[in-house]
Amino acid sequence: MIGIATIVGIVMIAKTAVTIDSGRAGVLYRTFGGGVVTEEPPLGEGFHIIAPWNKVIIYEVRQQEILENMKVLSSNGLEIELETSAWYQPEWSKLGLLHKEKGERYVSRILQPAIRSATRSVVGRYTPEQLYSTKRDSIQKEIYKETKEIVKSQYIQLNEVLVRDIGLPPTIKDAIERKLKQEQESLEYQFRLEKAKKEAERQRIEAEGKALANKILSASLTEKILQEKGISATLELSKSGNTKVIVIGSGEGGLPVILGNQ
């Protein structure tokens, strides 16, 4: 009898004990008490004791990732292959409602259709060239925004949507790359022209400045001032111990003519 009681006890403990691992949470289902518990927080990590006739449904509540590969149409009807990924997690406080209304397959029932719908809507507003080059970041943000709007009332927390790859037909891709290369070469040529124009303008301004300075200097040098400067320079030269000045007459403006200098 003791052995039977022990076995029964072990079975009861096994049925009433629930251990929830890290990063997970449990939704309690009361068989005789209204089914899924939605008015109470979910069961957190650790060890829990429940009635043997109840059960616990365990969910991953950490951030998870889902990959989506799809074919969508651009604004001009060209088929585009798009690879996206979404980071998501269930809303912890509403885990009971998520289980009751959406179920354990909420990703395939709610999130994936929302991502596909938002992606088709956004990509359909852009040309292949915009998708491939200039608008990739904008497209990514728009897909995230529209997907989040769809799932915001579905007890799903959407953290990010990433556009990982955009696939175009080879002929279209080559044409876009040639056009981008030509545009880059044109921009480079315009830059060189602008740089040459600025250098020419700098040289013109510098030349005008020098010409103006020379004009002002010429206007200020009268004959009398030049004569005084010549006399002053001659006097300074005569004071030098290594200089011999022999005056044999007068030069232009009445200045002495220097014949010897050692």
TrEMBL record:
Its main location: mitochondrion. The keyword Magnesium does not apply. InterPro entries: Band_7, Band_7/SPFH_dom_sf, Prohibitin. GO terms for cellular component: mitochondrial inner membrane. Residues 15-180 form the Band domain. It is found in: Mitochondrion inner membrane. Pfam families: Band_7. Gene3D superfamilies: Band 7 domain (3.30.479.30). It comes from the Eukaryota. The keyword Mitochondrion applies. Keywords: Membrane, Mitochondrion, Mitochondrion inner membrane. Belongs to the prohibitin family. This is Prohibitin. It comes from Elysia marginata.
